[in-house]
Amino acid sequence: MSSPDFIAGRELRTHGARIAGVVSCVPSKQVDNDSFAERFDPSAVRDVVKMIGVDRRRWADENTSAGDLCRKAGEKLLAGLGWQADSIDALIFISQTPDYRLPGTSFVLQAALGLPTSCLALDINLGCSGYPQALWLGMNLIQSGAAKRVLLAVGDTISKMIGPNDRSTTLLFGDAGTMTALEASPGDAPSHFVIGADGKGVRNLIVPSGGFKAYDAAADERMIDKSPECLFMDGGEIFNFTLNAVPKLIARTLEIAGSDKYAYDAFLFHQANLFMLKHLAKKAGLPADRVPTNIGEYGNTSCASIPLLMTTELKDRLKKETLQLGMFGFGVGYSWASAALAVGPLDIVDTIET
Fold this sequence. Notes:
It contains ten helices and 15 strands. By secondary structure, it is an alpha/beta fold. The relative contact order is 0.21.
C-alpha cells in the first residue's frame, strides 16, 4: 500500500479562539498486568507488555459509558470555569463508543449538563486522530461567529469491544472521557492544523459487526477465530502506516506553523504504543524530554489520550504557563490530524475518577 501524501492533505489555520480548560475522567477500576495471569501465558504477557509499555489501565464497568465519563468531566469543568450552562453555544461529542446507536450522545450530554436548546449538538465518529480534529472544528465554529463558547466531549470505552482472549487489544486499551472548553479570544495567535485520511486502511482496525452493512469475515483469513463483534487490529499494518506517515506529518506541521522543534514545550502524541512513540520521536529528531507519555498508567485511551496527557503530565505547568504544544493523532481509518498551538494558563486542568 502506498503511503498517504501529507502534502496533499488539508493544511488549516484558525484564529480568535483559545482553550480555557480541560478535565479528564477515568474509571476507578484499575486493571494491572497480573490480572491476566490466568488468561494468558505469563511469558507472552511479558513480551507484549515490553512492546506496548502498558503496566495498568482503567476499565469502565458495564453501567458506565464514554458519555458518562465525559459528563462527569464536563460537570467538573463548568464548575471550575464558573461558566453557566446557558452560556454554551455548541457541544461536539467525539467517540467510537457512543451511548446508543441512536440518538447521538451529544443530545444526551446536552440534557444532562443543562445546556440550552439553542446549543448546537453534534456527534462525530472519530478515534485516535479525534482530538486535533475536534479542536479545529470547535475553533472554526468560534472563528465563524457561530459560537463564543464550545465544549468538546472526547472519549472512548474501548474495553467494551475487545475480545477477552485477544492479547493484542486486551492488554493495550484503557477507557477515559474528557471535556475541553473553548472560548472566543480575539487577541490569541493562530492555531495550525493538518488533517487527512486514507480509507484504504479501513479493514486493518475495525469492529466488523454492529452496524448496518454485512461484513464477510470468512473472506478475510486474518479474522479466523476472531469474533466480528470485537475490535480487530492488524498490528503490523498499523505499525507500518504510523512509522511511515507520522514523521511526515510532524515535519509538515512544524513547517506550516513557522517554528522549529525547539520552540515547542511539548509534543503530545496519541498514546498508541510505547515502542512506537519512542521510535517516532527519535525518527523526527524531537527532544525526548519534550515527549511526555502516560500509556504505562492508562493504556491506549483512543481519542482521549492527548487531552489526558494534558491533565496528567502537563497539569502543573498548564495551570501557570503558556505552553507551545504540538499534538499528533493517528490511527483508525486510516486518519491523521495534528495541531500546533499555544495553550495556557488554563483556568482548570484536572483528572478525576468516576
